[in-house]
Automatic annotation (TrEMBL):
Protein keywords: Calcium, Cell adhesion, Glycoprotein, Membrane, Repeat, Transmembrane, Transmembrane helix
Upper taxonomic lineage: Eukaryota, Metazoa, Chordata, Craniata, Vertebrata
CDD domains per the UniProt record, alphabetical: Cadherin_repeat (cd11304)
Domain (Cadherin) ranges: 66-168, 169-291, 292-402, 413-528, 529-649, 650-757, 758-867, 863-965, 966-1068, 1071-1177, 1178-1280
A GO BP annotation: homophilic cell adhesion via plasma membrane adhesion molecules
GO molecular function: calcium ion binding
Subcellular location: Membrane
Transmembrane stretches, start-end: none
Region annotation Disordered: where it falls in the sequence: 1-39
Low complexity bias: start-end ranges: 22-34
Name used for this protein in its record: Dachsous cadherin-related 2
Pfam families: Cadherin
Length: 1342
């Protein structure tokens, strides 16, 4: 610190105080800005100081003031409170001892002097107020004046220290430099900046060599060039900074360089900054292509096709990009012939592959020489050349020739199967147009490459050793001879191949095919296809009916007498039925004959299976050769029975029990029907239908068509699906006759349902004074199973403070086990789990929210935690159901109010608000809702505490529903051959009532004639007598269904039984009486879904062509059928939501047989649902209003969505996506529940997003927004914000004030809205007369 002071010249004084300065007055130490007393001075004090200051300036302006200079300096970065100097040092020694302090003047109001320095106004000592930064401010100036008028001009200079490092504008820099840049080229770099000054600023740059890189022997590539400090040419002393290239770059040697530049200052130690320069060397075309070889030599065959590869030349260029891309071309040379060498070849521009361009001929030119150029892609391309020598290789291109001369009779290619070994068949000679094969080896070392020809070899292929070649003595002459035995029946044609091969390389060969036939001799007897034929014929066959076709063959040559056959029949001894009537000779005589030409055996008279069940015949076949040869076979014919017996079930009604969820494929019952007929007519097939008179297949069951086993075909849920299934089983024989039986399946319950809480959320309030043992609330869970599986036990899930409660495992009542007085007002959350008798637990546990209120009054408590009432469903509206009652505490006189908080969505009940009487307010229906569970809350006056109880109301059934038949009349058709005891019809009526009111008994009210009976429990109608000729063709019955209620109710059904006459059996039959198939609604058009097939009955030819068609109807229009194959396919898109089942008929007929009848079958297509519909809300947006209340409001609304899909695809669940703090959602019912108290003043509006999702795979969902408006009630008192409640507001008034003078204004606030927030003022007068305006909130003096 170097203070210095001097006078402004001896005897020279400056007139007046310095201008442009702000004066600061002496004051106490520590006062801000040097003001006496700090900021606590009153306005009067400030006024007096201002007057004093003006007076002092007026006196000073009239005389010459003494002005002295004081220069001080301090280093930057020193800690606060560092001594800088003393203002008195700038005064003469005589005045330094004078007291009185200083007046300070800054340059302007925003001067940082007193922010950066502490100037003591009494002593004049200057200290730093904070750490100084020269780079922020390097100079300070102010004026100090004594009370005697002496003025000191103080200058403070901040000395620089080396506290900054040089820094470049960025850490790294990228440069692109051409490899052809000459040495000396300079590249401008950004300079470094150092905020320090002088020697501490940037002094120079250094190019740093990385320590991990070895030194280049040729020296560095770059050096730095920059100015010198103090250079006046640049804005900075060291600028410009250039990177200078010292020697040429070579991209092929190094494609990139990384340089590190260091900037340093002059400090000790010096500070540095760094810049990383990434220099990329740009490629230039400075390298020519270079071939891998100095000369290329290749060879190619003269038969090489144009485009054949000869060789590949390859040149490389070290440059990059287009400079390194090499392209090839041929240089034209002077040709010796009409075409140059380059005309025969071409080179691929990119790959360098040399290929043949036109056909070659070695005899014309054996050598070709080419010059290939390689040119790179630079702007001024570099070119290289190479010579390619190509030799043309000779090939053997003339095959030998074969000449054939047959030596047989007539010169034909034929030999007798009786020819002897060694007999000549043909003379063979060979020749070759090629010359002498002796050739010299070519220049490339290929041996034996000449014209080929010369010695020729001949070989024989085929014949399996039956023929051979023998030498003819002369060169090139051979003979074809018989070498083995010949048999025309084993082989009548020989495919011989003569192969002549020359000695060329590669050798050429010629093939000559010789088809040699073997002439026939009659040496083979006839042969039947089977030794024993089995056939059958219906006993109803007419004379002349073809029965069987026997066939024999002769291995001799076809079309000759050796192979022509004649058939004859030899009758064996007749075997007649011994149990029948003794037959006459005519009845047991010949019954069959045979056609001598075709071998078809047919009947010659009528047959009788009861007289003769089987016939055996012997057939003789003889050829026309010399001598003739014969053969025999045995034919056994069975006489088939006609279809004159119907199937018969052992029982007409079957009863079975089955556990629900039995696995698919489980078989639980076998029905059996027998048919006295034989063969196809005695073969019984079973089919199963859903209902006694229905042609719809049962979706839940299927029957094995052959053994009658009834099995499960889908999962059955007793709680979801019917508990009883009525099934119809039909047994049909191969002739179309059928019988039927009835099956009733009772479903047994298994434990497949978890307990479900309803409701699952409970909210209540209790007092902190509630005594242990008090019943708090009753939770309820139900299980859809029955018996022990439907019995529910409850348990409390451990949690925070759950030990204060216990639960009755049987009733679900929660009891308090400990006192609550030690707890403050809080909210407890309990969870209860329900478990059924089979061990299954509830998926969603019950949530119980208990608000504990520490009030002086305990909440009203119900006398019972659970009430049970019952009411008949036919009671009139406003009928009382029961009364609930809550008791208030002994020290309370508040009334108790009751309300129904949840469980009554349809508003069928009401409760008297203070009597607790529950009444009906809408009609009840036991069939719609047999049990209603209500939650009733009791609130003591306006206290926030409340209690709740559960009210179970059982709606008792009355007999108010009649039994209902599906239709008033029906008709059933039965054949005339129906046996007594056969079940004909199942009457099914439904009664919506329960118990005895819904139990139905069936009777026949009237019938004509009286030949029918009915099972009173099942409703099955049976035939009691045979249907003789006296029975009319239509019988009418009146069936009655009567319940057991008092009084009972009944309904009638008129049933018409039509008796069909026996008709001629059709000539066709379908494989199934009913075809059923299940298909997805997403099936694409033209997809084949089912094949129907019919077959002819009786002696129809199996090869008869059948045609199929569909009966025109609305259902069949969706499908089509292939007329030839019977495949049914999809023509229109299916939609399960529109139609679930299609029922139509299909027909089959034989177009060639005009007399035959067409047959039909039923086709049932069940459409399976897919999850193709998303849930949709009934409203896009829902607005709800609810009053604010100190207690939760429970259910305040219901969200409803629909899904057109079925099953799990249409099962919906609701969830909240937001605002779970105030509201909850019942996931099953969509009930929107307020589970905490709502306060309009805290939050008047709530926006909630609701998600609904189905249970499909993958699931579909939708969202909607619910807006909840919390309406205001007058639950807040006005308050004065000027003073806290219970305190007083004090206002001072000077005495002597005039009347009506305004004293003060008060105002009050109310957090409510509207009229509830409008404030009216009133007041009481004391001994001072004060008036309070009721509207203007002003207080004035009276």
């Amino acid at each position: 610190i170097s203070p210095s002071g001097r006078r402004m010249g001896k005897g020279h004084q400056q007139r007046g105080a310095p201008t442009g300065k702000r004066l600061l007055f002496p004051g106490r130490r520590g006062s801000p800005r040097g003001l006496p007393g700090g900021g606590g001075a009153t306005g009067a004090q400030r006024f007096l100081l201002g007057l004093f200051m003006h007076a002092w300036l007026w006196v000073a302006s009239g005389s010459y003031a003494q002005v002295f200079n004081l220069s001080l300096s301090v280093d930057e970065g020193l800690p606060p409170d560092t001594l800088v100097g003393d203002i008195r040092a700038g005064l003469p020694a005589a005045q330094q001892q004078e007291g009185g302090g200083f007046f300070l003047s800054e340059d302007s109001d925003d001067s940082p002097l007193l922010d950066d320095f502490h100037v003591h106004p009494d002593t004049g000592i200057i200290r730093t107020a904070r750490c100084l930064d020269r780079e922020r401010r390097d100079h300070y100036s102010f004026v100090a004046a004594t009370l005697l008028g002496a003025v000191v001009q103080v200058e403070i200079r901040v000395n620089d220290v080396n506290d900054h490092s040089p820094s470049f504008p960025r850490d790294s820099l990228k440069l692109d430099v051409s490899e052809l840049s000459p040495p000396g080229t300079a590249f401008r770099l950004p300079g470094a900046h150092d905020p320090d000054a002088g020697l501490f600023s940037t002094q120079g740059y250094t190019l740093v060599q990385p320590s991990d890189l070895p030194e280049d022997p040729a020296g560095p590539f770059f050096q730095l060039r920059y100015g010198t400090p103090g250079s006046p040419q640049a804005s900075s002393p060291l600028e410009p900074l250039d990177l200078v290239l010292l020697r040429r770059l070579d991209r092929e040697a190094a494609a990139a360089h990384e340089l590190h530049i260091e900037a340093w200052d002059g400090g000790r130690p010096r500070r540095t900054g760094h810049l990383r320069v990434e220099l990329r060397v740009l490629d230039e075309n400075d390298n020519p292509p270079v071939f891998e070889q100095g000369e290329y030599r290749a060879a190619v065959r003269e038969d090489a096709r144009p485009g054949a590869e000869v060789c590949r030349v390859r040149a490389t260029d070290r440059d990059l990009g287009p400079n390194g891309h090499v392209r090839y071309s041929l240089r034209a040379r002077q040709a010796l012939g009409p075409l140059g060498d380059a005309a025969y070849f071409t080179v691929e521009e990119l790959s360098g592959v040399v290929r043949v361009q036109r056909p070659l001929d070695r005899e014309e030119q054996a050598w070709h020489q080419l010059v290939v150029e390689a040119r790179d892609g630079g702007a001024e391309p570099e070119v290289a050349t190479v010579r390619v020598s190509i030799a043309v290789l000779d090939v053997n291109d003339n095959p030998p020739a074969i000449h054939l001369l047959f030596l047989t009779e007539g010169g034909a290619a034929r030999v007798s199967e009786g020819a002897a070994l060694g007999d000549y068949v043909a003379r063979v000679s060979v020749s070759d147009a090629d010359g002498d094969p002796e050739q010299e080896e070519e220049a490339f070392g290929e041996p034996g490459v000449g014209l080929g020809g010369g010695s020729i070899s001949l070989s024989l292929e085929g014949g399996d050793g039956a023929f051979a070649l023998r030498s003819g003595g002369s060169p090139g002459v051979f003979f074809l001879c018989v070498e083995g035995p010949l048999d025309r029946e084993s082989r009548d044609l020989y495919d011989l191949r003569l192969v002549a091969t020359d000695a060329g390389s590669p050798p050429l060969s010629t093939e000559e095919t010789l088809l040699l036939r073997v002439a026939d001799l009659n040496d083979q007897p006839p042969l039947f296809s089977r030794e024993h034929y089995l056939a059958s014929v219906s006993e109803a066959a007419a004379p002349g009916t073809a029965v069987v076709w026997v066939s024999a063959s002769d291995a001799d040559e076809a079309g000759t007498d050796h192979a022509r056959l004649r058939y004859s029949l030899v009758h064996l001894p007749v075997r007649c039925n011994p149990e029948g009537v003794w037959p006459s000779a005519a009845e047991c005589g010949p019954s069959f004959t045979i056609d001598p030409e075709t071998g078809v055996i047919s009947t010659v008279r009528s047959l009788d299976r009861e007289v003769q069940e089987a016939v055996e015949l012997r057939v003789v076949a003889q050829d026309l050769g010399e001598p003739p040869l014969t053969a025999t076979c045995l034919v056994s014919i069975t006489v088939d029975d006609v279809n004159d017996n119907e199937p018969i079930f052992r029982r007409q009604v079957y009863n079975a029990t089955l556990a629900e969820h039995a696995p698919v494929g489980h078989c639980f019952l076998q029905v059996k029907a027998s048919d006295a007929d034989a063969g196809l007519y005695g073969f019984v097939e079973y089919s199963l239908y859903d209902g006694f008179q229905s042609y719809d297949a049962s979706p839940a069951f299927q029957i094995h068509p052959h053994d009658g086993r009834i099995c499960v075909s889908q999962d059955i849920d007793r709680e979801r699906d019917p508990a009883t299934y009525d099934l119809l089983v039909k047994a049909k024989d191969g002739g179309g006759l059928s019988a039927q039986a009835f099956v009733r399946v009772e479903m047994e319950d298994v434990n497949d349902n978890e307990p479900v809480f309803n409701p699952s959320t409970y909210v209540m309030s209790i007092s902190g004074q509630t005594q242990p043992g008090t019943e708090i609330i009753n939770v309820l869970a139900t299980d859809r199973d029955s018996g022990i599986y439907g019995t529910v036990a409850y348990e409390l899930i451990p949690g925070d403070l759950s030990s204060l409660f216990t639960i009755d495992s049987t009733s679900g009542i929660i009891y308090l086990t400990s006192t609550l007085s030690h707890l403050e007002s809080t909210t407890l959350l309990l969870m209860v789990c329900a478990r059924d008798g089979g061990g299954l637990t509830s998926v969603v546990n019950a949530d119980i929210t208990i608000h504990i209120l520490q009030t002086t009054l305990a909440p009203a408590e119900f006398e019972r935690p659970k009430y049970t009432f019952s009411v008949y469903e036919d009671v009139p509206e406003n009928s009382p159901v029961g009364t609930v009652k809550a008791k208030e505490s002994l020290n309370s006189s508040e009334p108790i109010f009751y309300r129904i908080s949840s469980g009554d969505l349809d508003r069928k009940f009401s409760i008297h608000p203070w009597l607790g009487v529950i009444q009906t307010q809408k009609p009840l229906d036991h069939e719609t809702q047999p049990v209603v569970v209500l939650t009733v809350q009791a609130q003591l006056g306006s206290l926030p505490a409340y209690s709740s109880t559960e009210v179970n109301i059982t709606v008792i059934d009355v007999n108010d529903n009649h039994p209902v038949f599906p239709k008033a009349s029906d008709e059933v058709q039965i054949p005339q051959t129906t046996l007594p005891g056969t079940a004909l019809y199942l009457a099914r009526a439904q009664d919506k009532d329960s118990g005895k009111n819904g139990f139905i008994r069936y009777t026949i009210a009237s019938q004509n004639p009286s030949i029918f009976a009915i099972d009173s429990g099942l409703g099955a109608v049976f035939l009691n007598e045979s249907l003789g000729s006296h029975v009319p063709r239509k019988c009418t019955l009146t069936l009655a269904a009567q319940d057991l209620g008092v009084p009972s109710r009944a309904s009638l059904l008129v049933l018409t039984v039509a008796i069909e006459e026996q008709e001629q059996s059709p000539s066709l039959a379908f494989e199934n009486l009913i075809y059923q198939v299940e298909v997805s609604e997403c099936l694409s058009l033209m997809t084949q879904i089912l094949q129907i097939q019919a077959y002819p009955l009786g002696p129809q030819r199996p090869s008869s062509r059948l045609l199929y068609s569909l009966e025109p109807s609305t259902d069949s229009a969706v499908f089509g059928v292939r007329p030839d194959t019977g495949w049914i396919y999809l023509r229109r898109q299916l939609d399960y939501e529109s139609t679930q089942t299609y029922n139509f008929r299909a027909f089959a007929w034989i177009p060639e047989d005009r007399l035959s009848q067409n047959v039909s079958t039923s086709v049932i297509v069940h459409v399976l649902d897919e999850n193709d519909n998303s849930p949709t809300f009934l409203h896009d947006v829902l607005f709800l209003k609810v009053e604010e209340s100190p207690v939760p409001q429970g259910v305040i609304g219901k969200i409803t969505a629909i899904d057109r899909d079925s099953g799990k695809n249409g099962q919906l669940s609701y969830f909240l996506l937001s605002d779970g703090k105030f509201f909850k959602m019942n996931p099953n019912t969509g009930e929107f529940i307020s589970w905490v108290a709502l306060d309009h003043e805290l939050q008047g509006h709530h926006q909630v997003t609701v998600l609904v999702t189905d249970h499909g795979s993958p699931p579909r969902n939708a969202t909607m927004v619910v807006y909840v408006s919390v309406t205001d009630i007058n639950d807040n008192s006005p308050y004065f914000p000027q003073c806290l409640p219970g305190e007083e507001l004090h206002v001072k008034v000077l005495e002597g004030q005039p009347v009506n003078m305004l004293v003060t204004t008060v105002f009050a606030k109310d957090f409510d809205e509207g009229n509830n927030a409008e404030v009216v003022y009133s007041g009481k007068s004391s001994f001072l007369f004060v008036f309070i305006s009721p509207r203007t909130d002003k207080i004035s003096v009276l």
